[in-house]
Amino acid sequence: MSASASQISDRVPDRLKRKGRIWELEITDVRPVTATMHRVIATGPALSEFTVRPGQSLILVLPQEGDGVDARHYTVRSFDPKTRQIAIDVALHGTRKTPANRWVLSAEAGDRFAAVGPRGHVVLKEDATHHLICVDETGLPAAQAILEGLPAHASALALIEIGMPDSRQPIVESDRIEVRWLCRADGTAPGAALISALHDMPPQPDATHVYLAGETSAVRDQRRLLVSYGYAKTEISAEGYWRPGRNGGHDHIDD
Hints:
single chain; alpha/beta; Elongation Factor Tu (Ef-tu), domain 3; Rossmann fold; 2 domains; Riboflavin_synthase-like_b-brl; FAD-bd_FR_type; Siderophore-interacting protein
């Protein structure tokens, strides 16, 4: 499902053009990372000017059948300025025929699409001494990017909720970085395992920056719990990456 460069730019909706620079990208590879995550690698000549902070996302403008497009926010998993290649990990939402599922499962080398950004609120805060990261599968790429970008002086604890053990990915741990995988029990609400883990943890609000990403209502509950524990609202970066029944869009959470 390829398109010319002019067609790619022309198909970006006006409402998205105000949200950042438009990048015209071509897929070079698509591969499964786990049973629930696929990686899209793309490049473009203008990426020599591209910069991104760990955790930032792009709005992908994905071609659909006919002349339609669909906009989706995805974290930049990694960017190699030497090869001008962006890696974007796409979480599969089960067997549902969502626009994103259809796109990533049919994508192949040579396909072209547009992206807008980078942008986002869940971004590495480099001056924090400690980092607490709480995400579900959709926030895993952001968690990985933030952990890989940590300054040498910083420590981190990452709580990652997944729906099945096969969703785990290799993450390098050290005496500064601890990762806890939380497998969500069948029939429980998204974020339930994260809330339970936060209830069991002793609060450490001093010099800590918190990153929350996942289902919107779950992220809102996690934020309220942490605020009640004494974490400063200004030190919590919270974003809802998805909501049941909604296709696309992110929710910046500050209430």
